[in-house]
Design a protein that fits this description.
Layout lengths: L1 H13 L1 H8 L4 H6 L1 H5 L2 H13 L4 H73 L8 H10 L7 E8 L1 E2 L3 H8 L4 E2 L26 E2 L2 E4 L9 E2 L4 H13 L3 E2 L3 E2 L6 E10 L9 H7 E10 H11 L6 E7 L7 E4 L6 E9 L8 E7 L7 H78 L5 H32 L7 E4 H18 L3 E6 L6 E4 L1 H17 L5 E8 H6 L49 E10 L21 H6 L6 H11 L4 E6 L3 E12 L16 E5 L3 H13 L3 E5 L5 H7 L6 E5 H6 L1 H13 L6 E6 L16 E6 L4 H12 L25 E5 L3 H12 L4 E5 L2 H7 L8 E5 L7 H21 L17 E5 L4 H9 L4 E4 L4 H26 L5 H11 L3 H8 L3 H12 L1
Parallel strand pairs: 3-6, 16-18, 22-23, 22-24, 24-25, 25-26, 27-28, 27-29, 29-30, 30-31
Antiparallel strand pairs: 1-5, 1-10, 2-4, 7-9, 8-9, 9-10, 11-12, 11-14, 13-14, 15-17, 17-21, 18-19, 19-21, 20-21
Helix pairs in contact: 1-5, 6-12, 9-10, 12-13, 12-24, 13-18, 14-15, 15-18, 24-28, 25-26, 28-29, 29-31
């Protein structure tokens, strides 16, 4: 032990300077200045202990002294803890006894007051109906019956009686009216409790006196006291005199009731002939008194009932005393059990201020041993011993922990440096690969636009596809690196989810058509049209899942569905059943419910209200997206490593189908970033279903771009014997605003058309149903023609597997057109426009979208392309010239600044970011400064208005071109007021789309300014530009360059 402790200061104190130099925190001189603070710090105290105690020869002696002092101190502390906790327990027991005693006293007092109030009410009743009525409305029978029936209101009284005030001059008349003589009370005993205890022999006649108080009414149990003069009894006389003087209830001293021998008291109330003022004098009260009402209370019975109601595990002894005479208290209630320990006294108030009563309470049992205090004090000693041992063990471990800590810090710095190096390496490699790949793909695209024979075109397309596959692989590797480093950021922009899904179908339907697969999508109508989220990442996940399904599926279908999670939680059998008739292509499918059975969101309980309302009450919506296929499935032994990066089901998979095995891993990480979950179910030779959830935000903008008035009011009949496939067709028709009706049986079509109240304009029929029931359609059409009814337009829906089949001309006699799946809203809109003879449908062929007349926007436009790479310049220039633009090239940022100095002739500029000398960011910043300075001069009049060719404000759209795909580059482009972003390798269509958008927006702003200067204020133009332009980030940047007057003008025109 001495050896180990003596080694500790070698690393802490002797080499302290070396350690500080290694960590790099303090210099030698700075340590001298900070010596005292370090000495009193935790580390300084630790070093001091180790150098003066653990490394000393007196370790044993010092440790014994410290141990003795430690134990002695904690022994004294344990004694104090025992005394303190025991006193707390005694005080708590005392407070508990006081609480219980006060509670019983309060309840006894409350019950007594209730009975007093009822007696007082009875006194008022007698005053009102006996003395105030002539003749009296109350007699003995009425009083007795009323007293018996209302006895439950006076549970503490055993009887009531009423005595009237009679003067000596009225005695003779009074006795004649009642038929009995006023009798004297027997002074040898108190009134009996029950009638059978009474002396039935006639008592003595009451002697002559000024005033009498004979009882005229009494409860049946006490009617033997009728005619007895209460003033002849000493204590009753005192009660009557005090009651009529005070106007309050007066109690007698406790006395034993006859027969029961239980203690009781009598409460007496005075009855007045009229209501007296609150400040009436005793003389006025005596004169106004006309009678006296008394009630007998059984005190012992009252207390017994109370204690029975408050029975608890804490047994206490209760005694009630009359302490009117403190020297001679009268025990009204008490138990023979002798109490021990603490006691408590509670005061009782029964309404009589003269009589004093108290309740004494004690515990029956002795106080238990203070086990908590004992265990706590003993436990404290044990803990003190353990702390001493732990302190000794801790000190011996500190040195090793310090060494480990320094080693971990070194490894941490190395890991951070390696992570930074990896990120820089990936970014550099990505940029260096993308730049030449942009030239390769661009030149191949330009080569495909030339005249090539079939063999050459095949070679070029193969090379172009290989290059795009390489770029896709680079993107996946970069995404994986970003995810691992935690630097992948998500966007939050409004987008149309249904349009995104249509784009995915348009991108992948060619591969599905080559294999004869049916591709379909369905989105629940409860999902908003526009949501807020990262549409690019959602597109990436869905594209990856569908591409995998196409890759591993040889027959059947691929079905994409989107629902709210609340829909699935309320009905877990959406669309998928175990029999094949309910699938899209009639092939068996895996039960999709098993793909989400482990999701945490489905283990939560739904609210009691309608589940469909859950998503509408909040801005956040939970979507569940499933991709179902009928492919080869995943072997059970390989399902556990599906989401492992760079892992394939079998080594031969990558050679047969291609791919790196990283797509699903990236998809899982992206789903996790969007606060969702992903799972799958797969059965070999049946198919797979991948399901994931995402959390998006509801957008206030909720419009459907495909709904138009040209299809409003149209009704279509969908003839399909498969409910799932029919529902998909109905979904796309409803997106166009067409009412769709589903009919599963062809022989019912005629009845459906003729019997309906609404005319059927269109019939969408599955191709295979048309072929298998060719005779029925001829009959239906001829029948409608003979009946001179409107014949609906017949449209066939063909699957890729059946679209190539040849059809006889007779079978297609009544068919208006054939639409090849997969269905998309834009394609379906164009086809229906051609069939119905409206819109631009006549300009499209084979169901393809018509070419929009946007190429004219670039005709004659002057475009400046800035890039230090000659190949990239040639690719960009060639792509833009294809759309009619006049392109000027510059190979440095300095030349671009000189060429864009106002005034200039360029309509837009593509600016490369990474260039030598002056990069794209610096060039853009200088160009914006020149534009701002020129606009300021024009507004101040220093430069004439026509100096820039009547274009106000002078601001050229600048679009960034870079091979970087990190979020920081996007943010910097926005900060420098760039108008767009093009990632290398780019395609001509991408350049064209970004350029036309920027030019159109810039022209709209310039038009508004020209209208203002020429006093041509147009409300419609302002509204269009304000609503469609200010919501984009580049629009907000442009609006920020306007003056306040310009902004207020545009906004005011919208309001007007």
């Amino acid at each position: 032990m001495l050896v180990e402790c003596s080694e500790i200061p070698m690393s802490w104190l002797i080499d302290a300077q070396i350690m500080d130099q290694k960590t790099g925190y303090l210099s030698e001189k700075f340590n001298l200045w900070l010596g005292w603070p370090k000495k009193f710090s935790v580390r300084g105290l630790r070093n001091h202990l180790c150098s003066h105690y653990f490394g000393s020869k007196k370790l044993k002696e010092t440790s014994r002294r410290l141990l003795f002092l430690w134990l002695a101190g904690w022994f004294i502390c344990a004694i104090w803890i025992f005394w303190f906790m025991n006193s707390q327990a005694v005080e708590k027991r005392r407070e508990m006894l006081a609480s219980m005693c006060d509670e019983r006293a309060r309840m006894l007092q409350d019950q007594f007051n209730v009975s007093m109030n009822h007696l007082q009410a009875l006194a008022i009743l007698i005053s009102t109906f006996h003395h105030a009525k002539e003749p009296s409305a109350i007699d003995q029978i009425t009083f007795a019956q009323y007293a018996e029936r209302t006895a439950f209101e006076r549970p503490l009284t055993s009887g009531v009686a009423y005595a009237v005030k009679v003067r000596h001059s009225e005695r003779e008349l009074f006795e004649k009216q009642h038929g009995w003589r006023i009798k004297k009370m027997d002074l040898t005993e108190q009134p009996p409790v029950r009638e059978e205890d009474a002396d039935l022999e006639s008592p003595e006649i009451s002697p002559i006196q000024d005033e009498y108080a004979p009882v005229i009414f009494a409860q049946d149990a006490y009617k033997h006291v009728i005619s007895v003069d209460l003033l002849t009894g000493k204590e009753d006389c005192e009660n009557i005199l005090r009651a009529r003087e005070s106007g309050k209830g007066v109690l007698t001293a406790p006395f034993p009731l006859l027969k029961s021998k239980r203690l009781g008291v009598i409460l007496t109330y005075a009855v007045y002939k009229s209501e007296l003022p609150s400040n009436a004098t005793p003389v006025q009260r005596i004169k106004a008194a006309i009678g006296y009402l008394g009630g007998i209370f059984d005190v012992e019975s009252l207390v017994d009932k109370l204690l029975h109601q408050l029975a608890s595990k804490h047994s206490i002894v209760v005694n009630v005393h009359d302490t009117t005479d403190p020297d001679r208290p009268i025990s009204m209630y008490g138990s023979t059990v002798t109490g021990t320990g603490i006691y408590h006294i509670s005061t009782l108030h029964f309404g009589d201020p003269i009589r004093k009563h108290e309740m004494h309470c004690r515990f029956k049992q002795k106080a238990p041993l203070p086990w908590l205090a004992l265990t706590t004090s003993i436990g404290t000693l044990v803990i003190a011993l353990l702390v001493g041992y732990i302190f000794h063990a801790t000190v011996s471990r500190i040195a090793k922990v310090e060494d480990d800590y320094r080693q971990m810090m070194v490894l941490k710095k190395q890991a951070e440096a390696a992570d930074v190096a990896k990120s820089q390496f990936l970014a550099t490699v990505s940029h260096e690969i993308r730049t030449p790949m942009n030239g390769v793909l661009g030149m191949l695209q330009m080569l495909m636009d030339t005249d090539l024979d079939m063999t050459q075109e095949d070679y070029v397309r193969t090379a172009h596809a290989s290059g795009k596959a390489l770029v896709s692989l680079i993107n996946e590797v970069l995404d994986q690196a970003k995810i691992e480093s935690g630097k992948l950021e998500l966007e939050a922009v409004p987008f149309d989810l249904r349009a995104v899904l249509d784009d995915i179908l348009s991108l992948l339907y060619g591969k599905a058509q080559e294999k004869g697969l049916e591709l379909a999508v369905y989105v629940s109508d409860q999902i908003p049209e526009v949501v807020i989220g990262d549409h690019g990442r959602i597109r990436q996940i869905i594209t990856n899942l569908i591409a995998n399904s196409i890759k591993f599926t040889e027959r059947g279908h691929i079905y994409l569905t989107v629902h709210l999670t609340e829909e699935v939680m309320s009905s877990l059998n959406i669309e998928t059943e175990y029999h094949s008739a309910n699938s899209l292509s009639a092939f068996p499918v895996a039960d999709r419910r098993r793909s989400w059975e482990n999701f945490k969101i489905f283990k939560k309980e739904l609210p009691a209200s309608d589940p469909s309302l859950v998503s509408t009450t909040s801005d956040l919506i939970n979507l569940i997206i499933s991709v179902e296929d009928t492919g080869v499935g995943i072997p059970y032994e390989a399902q556990s490593r599906v989401f492992t990066p760079f892992m394939q089901v079998r080594p031969s998979i990558s050679r047969i189908h291609g791919g790196t095995g990283i797509g699903l891993s990236i998809s899982k990480c992206l789903v996790g970033l969007m606060k969702g979950e992903i799972g799958f179910v797969s059965e070999p030779q049946i198919g797979s279903t991948f399901t994931f959830t995402v959390v998006l935000t509801r957008s206030s903008n909720n419009s459907n771009e495909y709904k138009s008035f040209e299809f409003h009011g149209l009704t279509s009949l969908v003839v399909d014997d498969r409910p799932v496939r029919a529902k998909v067709t109905k979904y796309h028709l409803q997106r166009l605003g067409i009412n769709a009706i589903i009919e599963m049986y062809p022989n019912q079509v005629l009845n459906r058309i003729t019997s309906g109240t609404v005319a059927t304009n269109l019939m969408l029929i599955e191709h295979e149903i048309w072929l298998t029931n060719a005779g029925i359609w001829s009959f239906i059409m001829n029948k409608l023609k003979d009946d001179q009814l409107d014949i609906p337009k017949a449209i066939l829906l063909a699957n890729p597997a059946t679209s190539s089949k040849k059809n006889s001309s007779s079978s297609l006699e009544f068919v208006s057109t054939i639409i090849t799946k997969p269905l998309r809203a834009s394609m379906l809109q164009v086809s229906l426009q051609r069939v119905m003879g409206c819109g631009d449908g006549e300009h499209s062929r084979n169901g393809r979208l018509p070419q929009l007349p946007l190429h004219s926007l670039l005709h004659g436009k002057q475009i400046l392309v800035v890039d230090d790479n000659v190949v990239n310049l040639r690719v960009a220039a060639g792509a833009l010239k294809k759309y009619g633009a006049e392109v000027t090239c510059a190979d440095s940022g300095k030349i671009a600044i000189d060429m864009l100095k106002p005034p200039h002739r360029f309509d837009a500029c593509f600016m490369d970011i990474q260039m030598p000398e002056i990069d794209g960011f610096e060039a853009t910043r200088r160009i914006r400064e020149m534009e701002t300075d020129m606009n300021r001069k024009i507004n101040s009049g220093e430069v004439p208005l026509n100096f820039l060719g009547n274009v106000i404000p002078q601001r050229v759209p600048i679009l960034a071109m870079t091979a970087d795909v990190i979020q920081a580059t996007h943010e910097k482009c926005r900060k420098l007021e760039m108008d767009g972003y093009v990632t290398k390798p780019f395609e001509g269509e991408q350049l064209y789309r970004e350029l036309t958008r920027a030019i159109v927006e810039m022209n709209d702003i310039s038009s508004i300014k020209l209208y203002e200067n020429s006093h041509m204020k147009r409300h419609v133009s302002c509204k269009i530009i304000w609503e469609n332009f200010s919501h984009t980030w580049w629009g907000r940047i442009k609006c920020s360059s306007w003056s306040r007057i310009e902004m207020d003008y545009c906004r005011s025109n919208v309001v007007q």
